[in-house]
Amino acid sequence: MKTEDYLKSYFGLEGKVAVVIGGTGELCGAMAEGLAGAGAEVVIVGRNVEKAQARLDKIAAAGGRAWFHSAEATSKAELEGLRDAVLQKSGRIDIVINGAGINSATPFFAITEEEFDRILRVNVKSVFLGCQIFGQYLVERGQGGSIINLGSMSGVVPLSRVFTYSASKGAVHNLSLNLAREWATAKVRVNVIVPGFFPAEQNKKVLTPDRVASIMGHTPMKRFGEARELIGATLLLASDAAGSFITGEELIVDGGYHAMTI
Q: How far apart are CA 133 and CA 240, in angstroms?
């Protein structure tokens, strides 16, 4: 088998439909581009039409197929509408990425109930609903599928200054592993991609100069990650061939941060 054919057989996503919730963001947007580049038809989901169009243009320029659907990730009715719209337009759903998220660097004693509820609603409820609505479709369809939830290093080890965010991501990790166990016999795989430190819109306020210095001192590669560096992990977990025996995995992409002690 030629190398190109070998790669396509394991990582190619031709004929698959991927729904990327949070695809208007920097990280999930890059993941959406990667899925489209592997042959999947990609549905970018978010609220910002301009950001979505910029991503759609990049995908189209590279020869991929994608379209945008506006939906609020914390609304069950809107996610059910998203599911129905994708099935009507694209005919199937095979891959779901739950990547909506927000962050905060508020000192612990200053965290308000409103802020706590808002972060938990976006970071946890959106994943819960995405898994419930799309997971039910995949389980009942009986043909397997892949759900990829966007976790965080703060869901693995505690990080300073992001108390509510860390709690929310810990919940995402726990929920994902529970669902991986429940749905394994239905061939629906549930995994978590765990980014290390990737500069993105949601963490700009957190990346103060002193914090950046601390991060670099704890990262063997001595740099931040680039959004495109999440694509390889995404394709592995999305592929029914390459990732066929991978479920309940927390796949860390962090430049060695997690391996560093002293």
A: 21
Say how many domains are in the chain: 1
Q: Within a domain: residue 248? A: yes
In a domain, 119, yes or no: yes
Residue (of 54, 52, 100, 55) closest to 79 by Cα position = 100
Other Cβ atoms closer than 10 A to 179? 24
130 located within any domain: yes
Domain holding 125, by residue range, is 3-196+231-253
Read off the pLDDT of residues 166-208 as tens digits, 9 standing for 90 and up: 999 999 999 999 999 999 999 999 999 999 999 876 666 677 8
Helices (H) and strands (E) in the chain, counts: 9, 7
Do the beta carbons of residue 184 and residue 227 sit within 8 Å?
A: no
Hey, which residues are catalytic here? 165
CATH number, domain of 91, equals 3.40.50.720
Average pLDDT over residues 15-41: 97
With beta carbons less than 8 A apart as the criterion, state whether 237 and 200 touch: no
